[in-house]
Write a structure and sequence with these properties.
Keywords: Acetylation, ATP-binding, Calcium, Calcium transport, Calmodulin-binding, Ion transport, Magnesium, Membrane, Metal-binding, Nucleotide-binding, Translocase, Transmembrane, Transmembrane helix, Transport. There is one protein chain. Helix content is 52%, strand content 14%. By secondary structure, it is α+β, with helices and mostly antiparallel strands. The strands form 4 sheets. Strands 10, 11, 14, 15, 16, 17, 18, 19 and 20 form a 9-stranded mixed β-sheet that branches. Strand 1 and strand 2 form a beta hairpin.
């Protein structure tokens, strides 16, 4: 195989030797002479530098090659991927210059720095083949076998398997293979069934998290392709793409700086250094994937993607931890541990009692003979009996330990995450699912969350004259030109038009798009012509602190220097000392004139309009030089050019969502950067402020005022505040801290980079999927994909549903635990035997742990959940209502089953084996009927909405079918006897009494104060006395 270096030189030589027939004789001689020189140099360089196969060489960019600009094979690029990767990783400016700078690199990878790549399917495929795709090799996902192994690690499972093996061995030895395998084999089958169901559940949950991970990693990137700005997936990014970056973006690949202003990068994720790096052409043009844009904006040329970047290499070794434990899971693990200890004590007592009764000769076999007769009893019989006793005790532990609780949490979280995705909410951190159900306050943004983010300029004031009805041609051409300059130069948006006949396409933030659309369509602004007529000297990018952006430019025609500012109307107005009227006359702005402008701004704001002002000042070269040193733009003595009012209508349904949250006991606070009049108008429109409530002292406050309060004043007033206007991200953070100190569970929405501290500080951070920056998304717990407040209300509903479903399952499982433990203990102590065999108890364990969890964990949220007050941070997991329900059902089951244990044979006139089957059957059917009771903790009608949960009905049906199989067809496996129709009717009737008992019990009132708090109070008072 020919080395690439040799091949490249031969291709060059071949192209040089191909002399065009159209050349004249003199030109042919010059061509031949040049070819001879070139070939000699090539052969000489090859003879001096041996070919090394291990490391691919780069084709030398010799002067002759550069001058001729020979086009090699059009199917290949002029630079190797390894060279591009090393370029950014080493950040070597000399190396970059050797390639001809960024222009040379762009030429080598076939990119037009103004228009981007072609972007067609063939071009994308060719680039991906040459340079790779923007994806990372991830560690292999855990397979099904991994979860099977994890399930086997449970100590009780090991003990049961040991008992099953011993039982199997002794059974075969005593009764032969045909009959002797039943007891041990049954336990084996039951244990493997429990393991299989557990492994399948965990495997499915892991797959679900993997899917969500892929969705959360799929960022949207703005690129320029075929001279058109468009949004693509980060996975579709290729080498050669021109990427548009703005504040809060994550750099999606390695690349080089093309153009931009005040671009600063936070490289702490890669280097650990907190200082921001300024990106420019001269000293630092290198951009590294995974870093964040801290300030400014710009364009970059992608040079490496995917595994060829440092970020890609790092990410390939990082796997997403899906074993993150939520607070609720931690509380449940403690509960499980406590119940397990009780079960362990009961099992140990049962073990001791059974062993004592056996070795004292107080137990009989099926034929009525005493099982232990001292030395006359065979050793095999003793071991077999002891194994059976140990298996029964261990099985009690298995039933007592509610391992279904963590499974129920996992199932309900996985189910709710999947359904929340359909409801436009992507969960990034599991604890947020359940914490959201306890939220007492939601601090929300206005723009895009409460409003539609579909902005349009509806008002235009020039001087003190509204221009709604006026023709732009009546405005002074000079003033109109200045306004166009202020719009075209001082923007991060863009305008694209494919042809004169096609429509304009506007890109950028909603505010930028609204202003650009107005200037292009109403003022006939030619953005390209404006940009080419001026040279931008300096830019001050918009930030949420100053709420304005500025640009310093020089007109190419007369070299005059101009400052343009754009931003919040009252902020810009404070910087002005004069204004232009429609005729182009500049007028001084005295106090009276300023008051008039302030009134105009207030009137627009009261109509729910966002007010933006434009200001201008021509400066001298000396003033420019003075500001150049400080890197600042002039901020005083400006001339006001005009005011625009931008309408952003409220989202349909937002008022109902706000009302739902307020009825659920959740306070809604709107925190916005808009002025106080706009904020108040929107708050009234959305229902956050009720008519007349805006006049309540302290309901509406400005960020600066809140900031200047003392700590004690803030703590006193924070609950009353409904709207905070003209707020900065630090004001939002301050409010969150105050609310948390007062005991609130706080959810916060945010979309900007500066919102990150508040999103992290809040109990639940909610970032916006459309307008949210990558920094905001990474700091949040849940991403609202449609930026809609109604989706926030949906998340609240799902959060409450998760908590409620867990409580339902706890009530259901503890009922079984209490009943099973008491029945087995009493029977073992009094009769010397347990009524339920190991296989039967494992079957009950399977019903209540796995199928029960699946049935109750998938209940959907109801409107009733939004009519209760939020669950407090310290409220107990098991409420008084739950204790009332579970103790009544457990008492009923204990009474019935112990009655059958001691008097069942005489009452029904049946044999002992049939009686044991009746006990087993009634116990299982009681759990089936009690599953219906568990659906509603307080409501008497447990059947409401049951038709909507087909999974619940399906699981109930499967449980009943399997129970029939166990009793009627798996006699030897389950140690049961077939029952007749009358006996089945008696079992069903007895179990069905759970329903009327549940209905009656729910009529009994319970105190709101938790039961155990009385014990704590009693202990405290005793200590005092």
């Amino acid at each position: 195989m020919m080395h690439p270096l040799v091949h490249a030189n031969l291709v060059c030589i071949e192209s040089l030797l191909d002399v065009p027939a159209t050349l004249g004789k003199p030109n042919k001689r010059w061509h031949l002479a040049f070819t001879t020189i070139y070939c000699s140099r090539t052969i000489y360089s090859l003879s001096r530098k041996p070919v090394v196969r291990k490391k691919p060489s780069k084709i030398s960019s010799s002067p002759s090659y550069t001058t001729l600009n020979i086009n090699l094979d059009t199917d290949h690029f002029k630079i190797h991927q390894s060279s591009l990767s090393e370029l950014v990783k080493k950040k070597d400016l000399d190396h970059l210059e050797n390639f001809g700078g960024i222009v040379g690199i762009a030429h080598a990878i076939g990119t037009d720095m103004d228009g981007g790549i072609n972007g067609g399917p063939e071009d994308i495929a060719r680039r991906q083949q040459a340079f790779g795709s923007n994806t990372y090799k991830k560690p292999p996902t855990k397979g099904f076998f991994h979860f099977v192994v994890e399930a086997f690690k449970d100590l009780t499972i090991f003990i049961l398997l040991g008992c099953a093996a011993l039982s199997l061995g002794f059974g075969i030895k005593e009764h032969g293979l045909k009959e002797g395998w039943y007891d041990g084999g049954s336990i084996f089958v039951a244990v493997f069934l429990v393991i299989a169901v557990s492994a399948i559940s965990n495997y499915r949950q892991n797959r679900q998290f993997d899917k969500l991970s892929k969705i959360s990693d799929n960022m949207k990137i703005d690129v320029v392709r075929s001279r058109r700005r468009q949004t693509v997936s980060i996975f579709e990014l290729v080498v050669g793409d021109v990427v548009c970056l703005k504040i809060g973006d994550q750099v999606p690949a390695d690349g080089l700086f093309i153009d931009g202003h005040s671009l600063q990068i936070d490289e702490s994720s890669m280097t650990g250094e907190s200082d921001h790096v300024e990106i420019n052409h001269t000293k630092h043009p290198f951009l590294v994937s995974g870093t964040k844009v801290a300030d400014g904006y710009g364009q970059m040329l992608v040079t490496s993607v995917g595994m060829c970047t440092t970020w890609g290499e790092m990410m390939s070794h990082i796997s997403r931890d899906t074993n993150e434990q939520t607070p609720l899971q931690a509380r449940l693990n403690k509960l499980t541990s406590s119940i397990g200890k009780v079960g362990l004590v009961v099992a140990f007592l049962v073990l001791v009692v059974l062993l004592v009764r056996y070795f004292t000769g107080n137990t009989q076999d099926d034929s009525g003979k005493t099982e232990f007769n001292g030395s006359k009893t065979k050793a095999d019989d003793i071991v077999n009996a002891v194994v059976g006793i140990v298996a029964a005790a261990v099985t009690i532990i298995v039933v007592a330990i509610p391992e279904g609780l963590p499974l129920a949490v996992t199932l309900t979280l996985a189910y709710s995450m999947k359904r929340m995705m359909k409801d436009q909410a992507m969960v990034r951190k599991l604890p947020a699912c359940e914490t959201m159900g306890s939220a007492t306050t939601i601090c929300t943004d206005k723009t895009g969350t409460l409003t539609m983010n579909l902005m349009k300029v509806t008002k235009f004031w020039l001087g003190q004259e509204s221009m709604e009805q006026s023709d732009p041609s009546s405005v002074s051409p000079y003033v109109l030109e200045l306004i166009k300059q202020g719009v075209a130069l001082n923007t991060t948006g863009s305008v694209y038009r494919e042809s004169p006949e096609s429509r304009f396409e506007f890109a950028g933030s909603p505010t930028e798009k609204a202003i650009l659309s107005w200037a292009v369509l109403e003022l006939n602004m030619d953005m390209e012509q404006m940009k080419q007529s001026c040279q931008i000297l300096q830019v001050e990018a918009f930030n949420s602190q100053k709420k304005r952006s500025g640009v310093l430019s020089m007109k190419k025609i007369d070299h005059t220097i101009h400052v343009h500012w754009k931003g919040a109307a009252e902020m810009i107005l404070a910087m002005c000392s004069s204004y232009y009227d429609a005729s182009g006359l500049m007028k001084e702005m005295d106090d009276r004139e300023r008051s008039t402008f302030e009134q105009i701004i207030q009137d627009m704001a009261a109509s729910s309009l966002r007010c933006i002002a434009f200001a201008h000042q021509q400066i001298s070269e000396d003033q420019y030089e003075d500001g150049k040193e400080d890197k600042t733009l002039r901020e005083d003595c400006l001339t006001l050019l005009g005011l625009v009012g931008i309408k952003d209508p409220c989202r349909p349904g937002v008022k109902k969502a706000v009302d739902d949250c307020q009825r659920a006991g959740v306070n809604i606070k709107m925190i916005t950067g808009d002025n106080v009049f706009t904020a108040r108008a929107i708050a009234i429109e959305c229902g956050i402020l009720k008519p007349g409530a805006e006049n309540i002292i302290g309901a509406v406050v400005e960020g600066e005022k809140f900031r200047n309060y003392s700590h004690e004043q803030r703590m006193e007033k924070v609950d009353k505040i409904c709207v905070m206007a003209r707020s900065s991200p630090l004001d939002k953070l301050l409010m969150v801290k105050c609310l948390k100190q007062k005991g609130h569970v706080v959810a916060v929405t945010g979309d900007g980079t500066n919102d990150a501290p508040a999103l992290k500080e809040a109990d639940i951070g909610l970032s916006m999927g459309i307008q949210g920056t990558e920094v905001a998304k990474e700091s949040s717990d849940i991403v609202i994909l449609d930026d809609n407040f109604a989706s926030v209300a949906t998340v609240l509903r799902w959060g409450r549903c998760v908590y409620n479903n867990i409580q339902k399952f706890i009530q259901f499982q503890l009922t079984v635990n209490v009943a099973a433990l008491v029945i087995n203990f009493v029977a073992a102590v009094s009769a010397g035997e347990v009524p339920l065999t190991a296989v039967q108890l494992l079957w009950v364990n399977l019903i209540m742990d796995t199928l029960g969890a699946l049935a109750l964990a998938t209940e959907q949220p109801t409107q009733e959940l939004m009519e209760k007050s939020p669950v407090g941070r310290t409220e107990p997991l098991i409420t008084n209502i739950m204790w009332r329900n579970l103790l009544s059902q457990a008492l009923y089951q204990i009474t019935i089953l112990l009655t059958l244990q001691f008097k069942g044979e005489s009452i029904f006139g049946v044999t002992k084996t049939v009686n044991d089957t009746l006990i087993f059957n009634i116990f299982v059917l009681c759990q089936v009927f009690n599953e219906f009771n568990a659906r509603k903790l307080e409501e008497k009608n447990v059947f409401r909405g049951i038709h909507k949960n087909r999974l619940f009905l399906g699981i109930i049906g499967i449980t009943i079918l399997l129970q029939v199989l166990m009793v009627e067809f798996l006699k030897k496996f389950a140690d049961t006897e077939r029952l007749n129709w009358g006996q089945w009717g008696g079992c069903v009737g007895t179990a069905a009494l759970s329903w009327p008992i549940g209905w009656v019990v729910k009529c009994i009132p319970v105190p709101e104060k938790p039961i155990f708090s009385y014990l704590a109070w009693r202990k405290y008072t005793v200590k005092d006395t």
